[in-house]
Amino acid sequence: MRPNRDSDYTYISSFKQLREELTRLSYEVRLTRKKLDLSLMELSDIFSPVRLLGAVARQWVKPLSASLRQWVENFIKGRSSR
What we know:
By secondary structure, this protein is an all-alpha fold. Helix content is 78%, strand content 0%.
């Protein structure tokens, strides 16, 4: 099989081994491209405008809903104490 050195192809002694190395390198390139495509898809999913808009809206709605809840509780307490 192939030694650990990347640029040393002295182990290739026949056209068959050359063809096998070419095939191996071709598969390695295809695998690397697929991994890159997958990483790009994951990254675009994380930073999608819809997801970012939802996160921003959630951050704004939490304080507003807490304020509204507090106002309603105070309003109900004020009416019940009369």
